[in-house]
Specification:
The chain is of the alpha+beta class. Helix content is 18%, strand content 32%. The strands form 3 sheets. A 7-stranded antiparallel sheet has the order 3-2-4-1-12-9-13, covered by helices on one side. It has a 6-stranded antiparallel sheet with strand order 5-6-7-8-14-15, with helices on one face. Strands 10-11 form a two-stranded antiparallel ribbon. The two termini are 26 Å apart.
């Protein structure tokens, strides 16, 4: 199965530490070698509100993350964002190619939406019409297009995070009938995560402590790089650190993170 990484924060934060360990799973400490990708929501710096985070940096590569020059750029370039989604691919449907690399991006209601999936959906061929159609040949992109289509049909305008969570819970349950459907989704305002099988999260806040990567002998003291008011939530397929308390999702559970903390879904 693929690997997922999501980060949601109340202030722009770099994902360098988490991504460093995560990228090791793309061919070094694990066998996910069929491509990878990452997307960062960013604002223009003119406003403090997360509503300003409409810009997006999106990187994908069909090479294994562990040896990808693009991944090396991300490890060395501390891009700061309130919402990040990354994915390491092990192909189950669709050839190894750029168009099949997650995360996928679409526009809805004047915002970018980013989606990444871990799992395998069988006999999932929804009727797609209108603006949302897959470019590649994965079950994941089909699921994303259908979610975008159904969100657009269900809401006339941009709904609240709570309303979106209700609709997403219903849509996720329908797709999950076809197989394993772990996913991450963000529009720059929040991070939604749904678990079919394996998904974990950790919330980092004051008092910040040391953390040690599970996939590489690297530690960091978050207290040296954070402010007392910072909050960071990280969601992953399998825990990235060996000395933090990671909370497991229940099967079929959807959670939403806003401003670096678990919110009511």
């Amino acid at each position: 199965m693929c690997q997922l990484l999501g980060m949601n924060c109340n202030a722009p934060t770099d994902v360098t530490f988490s991504f460093r360990g995560f990228a090791q799973r793309g061919g070094h400490t694990d066998h996910h070698t069929d491509g990878w990708g990452i997307a960062f929501f960013e604002g223009d710096g003119s406003a403090a509100s997360v509503d300003s985070d409409k810009g997006l940096r999106h990187f994908v590569d069909h090479q294994p993350a562990w040896e990808s020059p693009v991944a090396e750029l991300i490890r060395r370039y501390p891009i700061k964002s309130r919402n990040v989604i990354a994915h390491i691919r092990k192909a189950t449907q669709g050839r190894v190619a750029l168009e099949n690399c997650h995360p996928f991006v679409r526009e809805l209601w004047g915002r970018y939406w980013v989606f990444a999936h871990n799992g395998d959906l069988k006999e999932f061929s929804p009727r797609l019409h209108g603006s949302f159609r897959p470019v590649g040949s994965t079950d994941s992109e089909r699921a994303f297009c259908w979610i975008m289509q159904e969100l657009a049909k269900s809401h006339a305008g941009v709904p609240s995070v709570q309303e979106l969570s209700i609709t997403l819970r219903e849509l996720a349950a329908q797709i999950a009938r076809h197989g394993t459907f772990n996913f991450l989704l963000s529009n720059g305002q929040a991070l939604w995560a749904h678990a079919s099988t394996s998904l974990y999260y950790v919330e980092r806040r004051q008092p910040f402590a040391h953390a040690t990567l599970s996939d590489e002998d690297v530690s960091v003291n978050f207290a040296e790089y954070t402010n007392p008011t910072d909050r960071v939530a990280v969601v992953v397929t399998a825990p990235l650190t060996s000395n933090e308390h990671w909370t497991v999702f229940a099967p079929g559970e959807i959670k939403v993170f806003v401003d670096g903390a678990l919110a009511d879904a």
